[in-house]
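As noted in the main text, all predictions were made from sequence alone. Below is one such record, for Carbon-phosphorus lyase complex subunit PhnI.
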Amino acid sequence: MYVAAKGGEKAIRNAHALLAKRRRGNTNLPSITLDQIAQQLTLAVDRVMAEGSLYDVELAALAVKQARGDLIEAIFLIRAFRTTLPRFGYARALDTARMLVRRRVSATYKDLPGGQLLGPTFDYTHRLLDTSLGVADEAEGVADQTDQAGEAEAPVAMPRVTDLLGQEGLIEGAPADDGSEPFDITRAPVSFPVDRSTRLQTLARGDEGYLLALGYSTQRGYGRSHPFVGEIRFGDVEVMFEAPELGFEVSLGTVQVTECQSVNQFKGSATTPPQFTRGYGLVFGQCERKAMSMALVERALRWEELGEEPGAPAQDEEFVLSHSDNVQATGFVEHLKLPHYVDFQAELDLVRRMRAEQAAEMKEAAE
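Prediction:
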């Protein structure tokens, strides 16, 4: 338990005032608007929505502004706000086969139905600073025309690559949706072992950097996994909800998501012929690195189900899932900044006493 020291409230108020001043910056410059953040820092906003477990562009932009660009702090703010929202039910599983695709690439097929759709991506850019971005657009109308020309065709639905493999029986079947309510990690504590729904929920809101490191480890031999990217797709998916009082599904609107399905080799078993297996990642917004990392780790965690040998960090379910949440990790690490005066004095007295006892023993031995 931490007890506030006398006079601390005034210092905290002053710290808040200083934070607001630093957030605002030079008052001779215009304040950045939420629309600017939402429209021009889209990938930051998408990450906050994904790891904050709340799809709301405006609130995510507000959190980014309030946090001065610290995305983990912004995620914390969104999580805190999310706890105040009522829960009136669970949506149906998203049908990503009907996604209106804005970007779609496959590393397994060069030519596939619907084709490759590069869309907005850094994949083919030179990593050179573009100094022209430091100058305000002189002709915004021209930029708008360019944007419209770049997205002349409306997003369309495209078949999934894994469905093409499934037609030949070359990849394991996708898990069926039985329509039951999933375990909700935001409303009940997780106990191990977990089912697929719980595993995917935890990974979906896990820290991107953490999952990236674990995914990378599986490619370097800690898990013997180096898959093909069957497909990465980013686009709009309709959210369907079945209201009990209506008895039929209604559309709640659309959300933008990134989906990654990896294709992994599997030698088969006594009951299963050789075939490919899946790794799966799905996150809010355009978060490809996160979705790919999620797919790598999700596949590694399936070792027992597929009769493989464990041994790598990314295969340890309790270790992976218990440490993936950046809000929990931040709280536990940053609590070290809080007062520990009493604890430290106790440790200090103990070390002094042990040193004195050791010195006495050494003196006695010398005599």
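Residues 122 and 362 are 66 Å apart (CA to CA). The chain has three domains: 12-82, 96-120+151-324, 340-366. These features were considered when defining construct boundaries for the mutagenesis experiments described in Section 2.9.
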